[in-house]
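Propose amino acids for all 116 sites.
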C-alpha cells in the first residue's frame, strides 16, 4: 500500500496516573476540546458512568470519525482511541488530552488506516 491509500490516522493512547478519571463533565469537555484542537467537527458525545467503580466509557462522534474513552479508576488507567480522517490531526487531539489530564505516564501507538 502506498501513502496515497491512507484515509486516516488512528492514535491509541494509554494514560496512567491521570486526573479526572471519574469526572464525566470534565471528560466530555476534554474530548470536545481535543476534537476542536485537532480541526475536527463534533457531531455528538455520549458517555456512560459505571456505578460499581466510577469508570466512564463513551465516544465523541466526529464528522471525521471518533474519539473514544474508557477509564478504569481502580487501575489508575484511561484508554483513548483517536481516529480521524481528512485534514484533522489526531496528534493535536492527543497533545490537548495530555495537557488536560496530566498523566504520569503515556504510551501511544499510531496506525495509518488505508483503503485496500
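Proposal:
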Amino acid at each position: 500500500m502506498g501513502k496515497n491509500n491512507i484515509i486516516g490516522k488512528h492514535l491509541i493512547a494509554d494514560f496512567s496516573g491521570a486526573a479526572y478519571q471519574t469526572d464525566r463533565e470534565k471528560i466530555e469537555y476534554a474530548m470536545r476540546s481535543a476534537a476542536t484542537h485537532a480541526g475536527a467537527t463534533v457531531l455528538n458525545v455520549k458517555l456512560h458512568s459505571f456505578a460499581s467503580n466510577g469508570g466512564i466509557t463513551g465516544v465523541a462522534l466526529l464528522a471525521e470519525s471518533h474519539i473514544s474513552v474508557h477509564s478504569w479508576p481502580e487501575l489508575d488507567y484511561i484508554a483513548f482511541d483517536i481516529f480521524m480522517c481528512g485534514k484533522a490531526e489526531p496528534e493535536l487531539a492527543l497533545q490537548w488530552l495530555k495537557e488536560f489530564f496530566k498523566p504520569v505516564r503515556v504510551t501511544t501507538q499510531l496506525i495509518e488506516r488505508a483503503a485496500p
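The chain has a mean pLDDT of 95. The two ends are 7 Å apart (CA to CA).
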